[in-house]
Specification:
single chain; alpha+beta; Major capsid protein gp5 fold; 26% strand
């Protein structure tokens, strides 16, 4: 239940003493906005201003070792690397002394809730922009866009994580993408990573179609009684209104099997201050901020198409 602003909670509103009650309202509102990004991304923390990701060559396949013969030893070589730099985000509002004295407590509570909502939405938008820009400006460590037909391996070979021919979401295109997902992610020496897709990320316009495709017992959209084999993959449909292209859709492995990272330097933090701590205007100032970086190292476990 969201915190309710009542007059007696605000008897000491001005300055830093306001923080506990405003913080309670702020955190209660944050809980009302479930996070999609926490489902899809690796959530990490750091105490530095940068975060570095480095690819490694795979080791070759095992070789036969004849009796009384030495093992062969290999040293894994470093591949492409990528550095994420922490970015600070923040916003605040001010409350006049007159607002407090005139008993505008619901108005103060509403402002605090709106700030929390803005923080939650800002984080979701920044996360989904990884996908929105994943066919263009957002790149992986090899320097090409996240969803690309020519990703390079440390050894110089290539692999793709897009459909050979872009297509809108359908039973046929999803079946092809699932088949590709199990085969295209290979190592330097031919090892098939055998990654499994877990999430199907779509725009809300495709949410119900996606749920039919992954949840129907029989093939959807057809009069025959064939088994819907896609259901056996156990995909979880996630939809986000912050995807800007309604035709684009994506398959993702479980976070531990890909390098889609949100690295938090500072979680959402709130502060309040007023004349008692040195401000010159006769107002209280309330603000929230966070520091983090979002990016992708290698493209393994990520597959997408911009649609037809």
């Amino acid at each position: 239940m969201s915190a309710i602003a009542v007059r007696n909670l605000y008897s000491d509103l001005f300055g830093s003493s306001a923080l506990p009650v405003l913080e309670k309202i702020f955190r209660s509102e944050l809980k009302m906005h479930p996070s999609r990004r926490n489902q899809l991304f690796n959530m990490k923390t750091t105490d530095r201003d940068i975060y570095q990701m480095t690819a490694l060559h795979d080791l070759p396949m095992f070789r036969e070792v004849p009796e009384n013969s030495d093992y062969s030893y290999e040293r894994s070589k470093q591949g492409a690397s990528k550095t994420l730099t922490m970015t600070k985000y923040g916003l605040g509002f001010s409350i006049s002394r007159e607002t407090v004295e005139d008993g505008k407590f619901e108005w103060i509570s509403m402002l605090t809730k709106k700030l929390a909502r803005s923080a939650a939405e800002s984080q979701e938008i920044q996360a989904m922009n990884i996908f929105n820009n994943g066919f263009s400006s957002e790149t992986t460590a090899d320097g090409v866009s996240i969803f690309n037909s020519a990703h390079t391996k440390p050894s110089g070979g290539t692999y793709r994580n897009v459909l050979s021919t872009a297509a809108d979401l359908s039973q046929s295109s999803l079946s092809t993408a699932l088949s590709d997902f199990e085969q295209v992610f290979t190592g330097d020496h031919g090892a098939i990573y055998n990654l499994k897709p877990k999430f199907l990320l779509v725009h809300p316009d495709n949410k119900r179609l996606a749920m039919e495709l992954v949840g129907s017992e029989l093939k959807p959209g057809t009069s025959d009684n064939d088994l819907n084999a896609i259901k056996q993959d156990g995909l979880v449909v996630v939809s986000s209104p912050h995807l800007t292209d309604s035709d684009a859709w994506f398959l993702l492995s479980a976070p531990e099997d890909h390098e889609l990272e949100i690295v938090v330097r500072q979680g959402i933090r709130t502060e309040a201050a007023g004349p008692d701590v040195g401000f010159h205007s006769d107002s209280i100032f309330y603000k929230a901020s966070y520091r983090e970086a979002i990016g992708v190292g290698e493209a393994y476990g990520l597959f997408g198409t911009a649609g037809a």
